[in-house]
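INFO  loader      accepted 1 record
INFO  loader      residues=212
INFO  predictor   begin
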Amino acid sequence: MEMYTLQLGELGTNCYIAVTAPKRCIAVDIGGDSEELLGFIKLKGLTLSKILLTHGHFDHIGGVEAVRKATGAEVYIHPDDAIMLTSSEYSLHSTMSYGKFAPVTDYTAAVGDSVINDGDMSFKVLHTPGHSPGSVCYICGDVIFSGDTLFCGSCGRTDLRGGNSIDMKKSLRALYLLDGNYNVYNGHGSPTTLEDERRYNPFMAEYRKEYR
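INFO  predictor   done
INFO  writer      dumping C-alpha cells
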C-alpha cells in the first residue's frame, strides 16, 4: 500500500493518506490543519475521495469539515460516534481544545463488518469500542488503521466520556484473535505490528495466557 503520514492538529494526530488507485486516495482521520492536508494531496496530484474516521474525538475530526467542503470527499464514521461530529461536548472539544469547533454536517455510517470500497482497495470495518462507543479499526490487506484502540505497547484511554474498560478488553481480544500478522497504524505515536503487540503489549497479556 502506498501511504503517507501527516501529524495534524493540536495533538499531532496521525493522519494517513492511502493511495487507492492512480491519482486517487482516502484519508484516515484529520485532526486539524486542513490546509496542510489539502496542500499535500495537491502536491502529490491526488484526488481525495473518502475520509475514514476511527472515532469522533476532536483530535481526529478537527480538520474534516474544511477538507470535506474543499474536496467533496465522503465522510465515514460509526453511528455510535456520529453525535460527536456536531457536538463540541461529546467530541471533548469543549474541555480539551482551544481551537474553534467545526461541525461535520454530512456523513455515511461505517457499521461493523461492513466493507468500504475505494479504487482498487477495500477497507473492512471492525467495531472496537472502548476508547469511545463508536471506535473502529479499518483493515485493508495487511494493514490495520487502529485509531486510539491499539497503540505500540499500549491501548486507548477508557476514562474519557463514553469510554469503557470492559469494552476495550473485548476489542483488544478481537484484535489479538485476528488471523495472521498486520502492520498497525495508530492514531498517535509509532506504527507497530499485531504480532509484536500480541507478544509484548501488557494490555494483551491475559490473551497470551489464554491462547498460548
